[in-house]
Design brief:
Layout lengths: L20 H22 L4 H7 L1 E2 L7 E3 L3 E3 L2 H12 L30 E5 L7 H16 L6 E3 L16 E6 L7 E2 L11 E5 L13 H12 L49 H11 L26 E10 L4 E8 L5 E8 L5 E9 L21 E6 L6 E20 L4
Parallel strand pairs: 4-5, 4-6, 6-8
Antiparallel strand pairs: 1-2, 2-3, 7-8, 9-14, 10-14, 11-13, 11-14, 12-14
This protein binds zinc ion (ZN).
Length: about 425
């Protein structure tokens, strides 16, 4: 979440736009013009120049921050963002598909992960610790009351609540980035070290008479942690365009908790979940017990549940891939609704940088973004854990040598009929 100004929080600015067909068309034209101007400005510049223009958190493990509060853990990912989103025309949205997601396939928790999203709250918050715990419980509860997800607070890990604590899914820690953002979070498919909710000092200096609160900020941030992109990247907002790498889950909602108020948002700074937010979340993860969903809101039906059959494992040891080479494993015959997991580890003392790609139904397409999972990290430690979509029975695994790589692969899946 980013505030309305560099140093102080402002209410929504700009004139709100009604989503009439004319307004949407004009907004799309504006977005296109801004987008082209941005690409022209960067066309002849280098990645190193772009990198210098991007805020990077200065502490160990710090991320690059773009679009207000969206974080890239790996320099390789920032470089791809620059090459494919800033310099080039981004790919167009595929209409009518599932979810507001991000670079690298749909970023959502699978059916096991979504029920155990555990976290700790660092004791380094000091005297503020109880208020952060309370705000986290309020914000996680807002989502788990509507969607079939479970955030689990593990207080026993608070004293060792760092980015390397493997006993929790994510950590909540204080930072001081001087208002660069109020807080920032992560997307579901990031590795452990990148899965943190960081709360800036500025989020504790809010106007007590204002609508913006820590729990509101965290409702927005935890929306990212469930896979939601910023609603204001949609053309109907007429401003604050980020990229086209998302799928609509509901029709445009300018009141959404994922919509910055200062981007022609309709909501105020209280950042509460709208009926569209609630139903969109329930559509992706299933509805929470007791939540009455409105089936007319979601653009697609919910994902299918897991299979009852037992999984099997196949190992591929001592594998090699040359720089630039694409190497296939599988396809694996899988059961719709079951889990498909691939874990890659480095082989030997110089494992290099192999990249893992997974796609259902057909082989992954690296350049066009045709894949369901691609961690895209520097080094060989990568994994994908996906639910096989309804109607799909084959899983393809591809390795690409970003640099030459040496790796072992473990594939766990439930065979189809
Ligand atoms: Zn955000």
């Amino acid at each position: 979440m980013r505030g309305g100004g560099a140093s102080k929080i402002r209410p929504a600015t700009g004139i709100a736009v009604s989503a009439t067909p004319e307004a949407i068309e004009e907004a799309q034209a504006q977005v296109l013009r801004k987008d082209r101007a941005q690409r022209a400005a960067w066309a002849n510049k280098t990645f190193e120049e772009f990198e210098r223009s991007v805020f990077k958190e200065s502490f160990p493990g710090g991320k690059y921050i773009v679009n207000g509060d969206v974080a890239f853990a790996d320099r390789k990912q920032l470089q791809e963002f620059f090459e494919t989103r800033i310099k080039q025309e981004p790919p167009q949205t595929r209409p009518g598909q599932l979810i507001v997601a991000g670079v690298g396939g749909d970023k959502i928790w699978n059916n096991t992960q979504k029920k155990q999203i555990s976290y700790c709250v660092s004791t380094t918050f000091g005297a503020r610790h109880p208020s952060v715990v309370t705000a986290m419980q309020g914000a996680t509860g807002a989502w788990s009351q509507v969607a079939d997800v479970a955030f689990v607070y593990v207080a026993s890990q608070n004293a060792t609540c760092t980015a390397s604590n493997a006993n929790v899914v994510f950590d909540v820690n204080p930072v001081n980035v001087h208002g660069q953002y109020l807080a920032r979070a992560f997307f579901p498919n990031e590795p452990r070290a990148g899965r943190n909710v960081l709360i800036d000092e500025s989020a504790f200096q809010l106007d007590p008479a204002g609508k913006l609160t820590l729990v509101g900020i965290l409702r927005h941030e935890l929306g990212h942690s469930l896979g939601w992109r910023h609603e204001h990247t949609r053309p109907e907002s007429g401003t604050c365009f980020e990229d086209n790498d998302w799928k609509p889950l509901t029709s445009y909602d300018r009141f959404s908790v994922m919509h910055y108020p200062q981007c022609n948002g309709g909501g105020d700074w209280s950042l509460t979940l709208t009926n569209f937010d609630k139903n969109g979340a329930a559509c992706v993860y299933g509805k929470a017990p007791g939540f009455v969903a409105d089936p007319t809101i979601c653009l697609t039906p919910p994902l299918s549940g897991p299979s009852a059959c037992g999984p099997q494992t196949q190992a591929f040891n001592d594998q090699r891939v040359a720089k630039g080479e694409e190497k296939m494993h599988g396809p694996f015959t899988v059961s719709p609704g079951s889990r498909f997991e691939v874990k890659m580890v480095g082989d030997g003392t110089a494992p290099g940088d192999p990249d893992l790609y997974v796609r259902f139904d057909q082989p992954p397409q690296r350049v066009t973004g045709g894949f369901a999972c691609r961690p895209y990290l520097s080094g060989p430690e990568e994994s994908c854990a996906l639910d096989v979509p309804a109607g799909q029975t084959r899983a393809f695994v591809m390795m690409h040598g970003y640099a030459a790589g040496a790796y072992d692969l473990i594939v766990t899946f439930t065979a189809g009929q």
